[in-house]
Each structure stands twice: as C-alpha cells, then as structure tokens.
Amino acid sequence: MLSILGPETQLCDRVSRREILKIGALGLGGLTLPQLLQAESNSGQSKRQKAVIMIYMCGAPSHQDMYDLKMDAPSEIRGEFRPVNTQVPGFQICEHLPKLGKIADKIIPLRSVHGSPNGAHDSFICYTGRTTRNQPAGGWPAIGSVVSKLQGPANPAVPPFVGLSPDARHPPYGSPGLPGFLGVSHAAFRPSGPARKNMVLNGIDATRLDDRKQLLASFDQFKREADSSGSMVGMDDMNEQVFNILTSNRLVNALDLSQEDPATRARYGKGDPKNFGDGAPRNLEHFLMARRLVEAGARIVTLNFGRWDFHSNNFSGLKNTHLPLFDQGLATLIEDLHERGMADDVAVVAWGEFGRTPKINKDAGRDHWPAVGGGLLAGGGFKTGQVIGSTDRLGAQIADRPIHFGEVFATLYHHLGIDYTAASIQDLSGRPHYLVDNYSPMPEVI
C-alpha cells in the first residue's frame, strides 16, 4: 500500500490535499486538476445546459392552412391559400409563411398531433401533455414546473421556468403553464405578470439607484452577511429565488432588450405588444427575449402568441394579423439559435390545443376539431428537415403516424437529460407519478 504522509493539513487517510493533486498528476500524464478540467471543456465533454422554448398558439391554429394544405380537396375544404415549395422534397408550406419555408431544413412540421379530449379551449394539454381528466389533487404540473423541481436553476440568479405572457381575458390564453401539485415555488416567473413586483427593491431611493456600483456593493455585503449567518438556510424556495434575483443583474440584463444588437432587434421586429382580443399579444420581442433568457440560464421559457380561434374570417385573419408576424418571429428565433451555436441545446416547439374543422363554415371560418391538429419542432439537436405524420385527403383524420402530445413531451424530457422512465414527482398525498403516461420519445427525431 502506498502511504504518503502529508504536512499539517491532512485528510482522514493522512494524505494531504496538495499530495493528492500531485498523485493525480502522476496518473494523468502530468496534467493538474485545473488542466484536466480545461481539457474536458475543450473536448466538449462537459455537460452543456439544455433548454426548451415553447410557443403556445392560443386558440388553436388551422394546420391545414399552414403546413398541411389540401389542394386536392373541394373548395369548401382547401380554402384560399396556396402552397409553395421548400428545399425539403415533398414539403410545401403556406405562401404566407415564406421565412419558415426558407429554413425548412431546420424545422419539423407535425401533421398528426392528437390527444385533446374535446374542443374546449385550454392551454393545459400544451403545457403538460395530459388532459384535465382524473387529475390528482392540486392538478398536473406544467413542464416548466417539473423541470424546476427535478433540475432546479442552472444559475441561482435566473428562474428555471419563465413565462412570457401578460394576463388574458380568457385565463388559459394568458397562462404560462401552472405548477399544479408542485406548488407556487415551482411556478413560472412572469416578468409581464404578477411576479413583476418581486423585481422591485423597496426602500431604495433614486440616488442610490443611480449609483449602480454602490447599489451592487451593498447587495454583495448583504448577501455575504446573510450567508455567514446561515439565514439563507431558513428561507423558503420562493424567497430564496427572489433574493438571488435581486442580488444579481443577470435576469434584469436578459430582459433588457436595449442591450441587444440593434440589427438583431430589427431582424426580430416588434410585432404588437397588445393582447389580441381575449388572447395573448403578437409580441415579436418575446421571441428575442426567450432566446436571451435561455442564454442567461433559464431552462424552460413559454410564450403565448395571438388568438387563432377564427370561427369567422379565418383567411383574412390569418393573412393580415397572425401568419406574417408568427413567420417572422419563429423563423428568426430558429435562425438565431443556429447562428449562435445554440440549436443543439435549445429545443423549440410551437402548437395549439387542437385542430380546426376541415370544412369552412358559412362565416368563412373554421371551428374546433379535436380529432387532429398540428405542431412544429426545431432545434434540440433533432433530425430536422422532415415532415412527420399525415392526414387524409380532407384533413379530417390521421392517415399515418399519430403523434400524441405525450410523445412530444417524452422527446423534450429526453432532450433535457431527464430519464422519463425513472424520474417521478410526488403529488400532495405523497404518491409518485411518472412524467409521461406510457409514451416514448419520437424515434424519428432523436
């Protein structure tokens, strides 16, 4: 047995910390621990943070007017939009989505999404992958809350789950995803909603706010005193998160778009920050803010876009108020992630709660159709440039490869590095629940 006696500072086996590093260097080709960690980082072996940006298209868009156009159907089915070819063979997209068409190799249209139990408007299934039926006490938590519970913050100054949506007149349209039985400490941080007050420091006058250096110095001193006294241990999860946010400018900087390159801001555009009817805004700056938030350390960012419930004037509504802005915001986000080297680490999903009727009604609209809807995936290191699933000639029923919401959630958990087959969360009674119900990640994309 090798026995190396250390000097005064020794571990329990009488080997000093310095000698352990020396011994380690002997077995590592002369590398010291810092050099080893640097080599690991340079080789890409260190684990990179994964994130998800989820766009909830409030009110359910008509996928047959976006990326599943039915040109062989009768006129009362196919509508007035025309498809255009993309660089992906066999994939055509609506003429009013030209930017997404140009990056068809970077997206995955899903043409056969199902799982909505009825035609009731609710963001619940988009955020949980489950229906509202037979819920445990407290309700199923959204993906952001699940990830907050299982993985916690990637950076203590940035909430793991951020929701970019103001309240809406129809509450589900303004929901970022609810924490359910996991409780408020795992709820979404909402800079546009009720949590905004948590970013305000009471008792600090304008003079001190103007002196950023003095303000940050006082925060640092306060945090050191709190840590040394052990008071941080006594804080509950929510207060600790607020404390960490207030003692760092990381989150504030991520939300401050004035710090972004003006050319990038112009590329995303502004959109319309006002709520559309009883729905959400068509705010293109939210797409940019979502990218900045995941860069800063957020794991899940949800944003709610528009109100796609066009029971009347479907085509003028889509053409004049929704498709051009959605096309610009989503395509720019996807391109931006690729250009910044983030496309493998950040998964993007955009969808609504169900589909729309194949037949156009007397008011030139499409009604609710829970039998089949659509969605779109991008990033995540997924195998993009393919279309998954199909519907029949009328767009009424799934013809090939049904895709349940739960499958997409299993895919997202897999991307995040969470073992969905083993990980569980406990409800209010202490009963454990798996994250998805008998679904596996989509083999076509991973």
UniProtKB/TrEMBL annotation:
Pfam families: DUF1501. SUPFAM superfamilies: Alkaline phosphatase-like. This is DUF1501 domain-containing protein. It comes from Gimesia aquarii.
